[in-house]
């Protein structure tokens, strides 16, 4: 088996594991009443822990895929997790995906893949000083706070899941922006890692992202929260890369138009998915919020 082909296989396995993990976690989270102790209840759920194990396996396979092949091959393939997750969720929840949902999911996955491949950001500086992070991070955290606050209100379940999933995805993107710097600190020893503010920012963003992701799984359908999370992570990471780390998209002229159109398609498809399934599944306990 050639290395590029092995990379593709590993990336697809990672995507499938991520999809299974999302379905298991959403199934567990959706059964937690909103007036219950959310985290304590999840920690007692075998399904939720099965999802955590699936995530762990997915990250391992993603790392193997990146070791065997390029980022431009692996990252777009990971987007197929969305196409695995939605039919799996439908299967276990007892409903059938509509043609509209399939079309929107495929459009989202293709648009995100195009954005990642054509945008192809250059590598930048990984050790930007704190003062250069303040404004861009402040902007993203303000968006996260607004989305999370709206997602905690009693609005439509589809919108709640979309907002909370998007907020979680932004925080995952923030974590991605810090990851490479922290990883390069590891050979210098544990103290080098623990004494860097980037490591603590990475942990805080990751934990808060997990919490908001699970809340998104609790309050609405997977078809609303997962697409929002899927597009928010790379967009937030690219935003920080371009504003803080001196990364640049390697496109010009027609390429910029294609990238812009792909972002527009992602946003429209994400909102469309949140609407198409929220109404259809509002009465199904496995994928709808439990009344408090």
UniProtKB/TrEMBL annotation:
Residues 1-21 form the signal peptide. It comes from the Bacteria. This is Threonine/homoserine efflux transporter RhtA. The chain crosses the membrane at residues 63-88, 100-118, 133-150, 162-183, 189-212, 224-245, 251-273. Keywords: Membrane, Signal, Transmembrane, Transmembrane helix. The keyword Transcription regulation does not apply. It comes from Rhodococcus koreensis.
